[in-house]
Amino acid sequence: MMKKILLAGMLLFSTLTITACRQGNQSSNTSDSSTTQISGGKMDTSQINAPQVGLSDDDWNNSLGTVSDGQDTNSENPATRILTDDADSIVIYFSRSGSTELLASKVQAVSNADVLELTVSEPYSSDYGETVERANEEREVDNDPVLNVDVSDLSQYQTVYLGYPIWGMTLAEPMASFLEEYGDELAGKTLAPFSTNGGYGLGSSVDRIASILSDQGVDANITDAYEIEGNKVDQADASLLDWFEQLP
User: Fold this and answer.
1) How far apart are CA 146 and CA 144, in angstroms?
2) FRET label pair with 139: which of 7, 69, 124, 207, CA 20 to 30 Å apart?
3) CA torsion sign, 126 to 130 to 134 to 135?
């Protein structure tokens, strides 16, 4: 019980911080920052720009109301990279508009995991429709985007939390790129997927993770996935705790 109270407190602090940041951003047409920085080994939620979080379903319109700075949440700051020598778990995530990044910060809050944010050499458009069109084309022709990140040795980690948005009812292409390139380093590990979506759930994303790894002959333990709509990440705390506590 005490563990759950402490974890809930950390998540509440994360939610209050991002809410304050989001409300402050709404008063300006530009944001001061768009990705998180290292702060005492924790993701700094005050630096996460996710103005769609908290929008009504009508305003958000199944993610059509989601904005992006056109730099995959990295127009002002470098990608998040929190690596230690003793952590046995790591959060690896891709976020275009901030929702998945905020969810990743909540996962780190309860897991005390290291963090590695994925970025791509050619960021996706700030226009949601153009991003969807590009992602669909990449998937159809099996042309995953090139990652622009140095992935360190993953051998120390027993659990890898994989965070991504759902695009076209399946796995976002940058995460597919990561699995294609580094899948062999995930052998024997526990993979815990978590994702944000436009209101239609996980789609085939977990099956696609399993398929990519299977094609490489990689055997990993994939847990049940956590999912939430992108405008409701600030409401994730209770259900995220339930998910986390049921992980192996």
Assistant:
1) 7
2) 69
3) positive
Beta strand spans in 5-148 (E): 38-39, 42-43, 81-82, 89-93, 114-117
| Phi and psi torsions of 72, nearest 5° | 55, 50
> Residue 208: CB partners within 8 Å, gap ≥ 6?
170, 171, 176
Residue 11 pLDDT grade (very low, low, confident, very high; cuts 50, 70, 90): low
- Strand runs (DSSP E) across the chain, as ranges? 38-39, 42-43, 81-82, 89-93, 114-117, 159-167, 170-171, 190-197, 221-222, 226-229
Residue 248: strand pairing partners: none
CA distance 46 to 194: 21
Q: What is the pTM of this model?
A: 0.85
78-120 residue pLDDT tens: 889 999 999 999 999 999 999 999 999 999 999 999 999 999 9
C-alpha span between 92 and 231 (Å, rounded): 21
The CATH classification of domain 72-245, taken from the options 3.90.380.10, 3.40.50.1820, 3.30.230.10, 3.40.50.360: 3.40.50.360
Question: Can you give the residue ranges of every domain in the chain?
Answer: 72-245
Beta-bridge partners for 160: 90, 191
How far, in Å, CA of 50 to CA of 66, rounded?
9
Lookup result for tokens 């299977």: 214
